[in-house]
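fwd from M.: "can u put these together and see what the complex looks like"

so here's what she sent:
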Amino acid sequence: MRRLAVVALLALAFPAAASAHATLEHATPGFQQRVETSPRAVVLGFDQRVTVLPGTIRVVDALGRLVSAPAHPELSGRHVVAPLHRLARGPYTVRWHVLAGDGHVVSGVYTFGFGVAAPPPTEAYGASGPTRSEHVVRWLYFLALALVTGGLGCRLLVVRGVLPPRAEKRFFLLTGFGALAAIDIGIIGFILRAEDALQLPFARLLYGDLTPIANGTRVGTAFVAMTLGFAFLAALLFLAWLTDRTALLWGAFALALLLTSGLSLSGHSAADAGSSWKSELADWVHLSAASIWIGGLVQLAVVVLPLAPELRRASFLRFSSLATVLVALVLAAGTYLSILRLPHVHDLWTTRYGHVLLVKLGLVALALAWGAFHRLVAVPRVAAGGEGSLASLPRSVLGESIAGMAVLLAAAVLVDSKPPPRGVPAQTVARKASTLATKTFVSGRTPRLRTAAGP
Amino acid sequence: MQPPAEHVHWLFATGFLILGLCLLGEAIVGPDVWRTRAWRAYLWPGIAFTLGVLMFPVMTFFTNSTIHMLAHGAWAQALMFAGAAELGLVRGKLTSPWWRLAMAFAFLVSGTAFLVHEQNAWFFQRSSFLHHLMGWTLVIGAAVPLARCVRPRSTAFGGAFAATFLLIAVMLYCDRDLAPIFGHLSPLAGVQHR
């Protein structure tokens, strides 16, 4: 026992050799730096001594050609230097991995440009763009966003009054679940993006350096802002439940709408050629209105209609009016964005983006038809006081919301797809996309170079 | 712009120290005396909840490895969940005493995250030793909030509960390199890097 106490005290008294595994502190050229003269070497500086491995630093050009010589350690082993051949103008990808003092292989990726702007690390050579898993994750993220935004919108704009205790509890459960789901799905989505950029098997991804992706890309900035935002929103929701203060729900609703803009500011509407504040605004209106519509339907079907009998007639009629405005906004903003991204009508059937858009439009038509049935058939009956129509409403409203969720799935695939570049005929793009050169930095679709041992 | 990791550890260590001292105070004087002022009942659950919210910036801004980010995400959510459940109980919004299991669950999740997050052996370095120690303290310590579900007014369990947080606080204070303030105590610690 005494020996154990001595060991414990000694362990506490002596300072640690390092704070866990090695951290990259600086790099030359820097993350996404544009340099005007050809750099002679890539230098990575770590916070502790590291061991150089075969292929510790690999610098490749846009075609994947190796332009670096084998790396060697410098400055007591805390720096690793990889000499470079004379570079041609263009973007370059740096992939590195070193053995840290704790025995773990720490890896990372970043980009720089010689004479040109560097692409974000998510478009580094070898990254292949969004996968099917990312489509599903993005869809789940949209659903979580709809649960939060639509739930709060329905509670504040449609129900307005006090809900019965059981309904209130279910409202907070659904909305709170949406907020937490948004945090966790956001984390999964970010890691999937990072996995694609780093091109590492999962075991090594655990020690992958995510800093260039978190700090140097729109996806990373959106991830940071939205994770923090949803954490704060979850706290606001909880305090609203704890203190019965509806005012806090208004704050949460405003924050939810603000957070929706995170997707608009990190997606096509902000990043692609031809984007402007108008496209960002249209995207935000499109997504916000759709979220309130679909999430509101879920709240109506699961909370208000089954658990608040005295509120359901007024709520249904009020929601119907609100939904008309929301659908008009969704259609107006969606039409503008479609024209912006697909300037030619034939793009609809000649590009992959167009194909997905057609599927989405089909699903939108289904959801709109269902909504029109509610507006034109159910609303007059409910307004006339028909109790029978109220009884079957929850299932019918749930059906409309499921159609809306299917639209969100198509939207998730659409967001992950690349619209054809403006001013370039789609056929040319399709032809170009088949070549390795343009795969790397233009289309976002690139060959996978993943191996069991990593790059 | 990022604060050194040491400062972040000390910030959370201070949070856990205050939380543990509140719990110790409640265990010593008893819940009836402690709650003569109503706000005191909200004190430690409120601190736990706030620490959970504050853990999110740590998760998002310290992204030098995936495993580090995931562990901090788990701690953030476990703290928020456990703090929220205790606040709900204090406020009377939650009535079932089984909600106290939320703290036991948070201990288990946090302890597991410590153990999974620390991949080195116990004696690799001081931080490894302390990570293992914190992990096992929380995993084994999960029995304490579990016991408090059954005997909520027990002084012994109340004291043990407070002691768990105080232990975690001390270990967090010791967890990082002392170089930024005191310089290295031993040449074995390597080059000073801050």
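replying to her w this: Residues 7-19, 424-455 of chain A have pLDDT under 50 and may be disordered.
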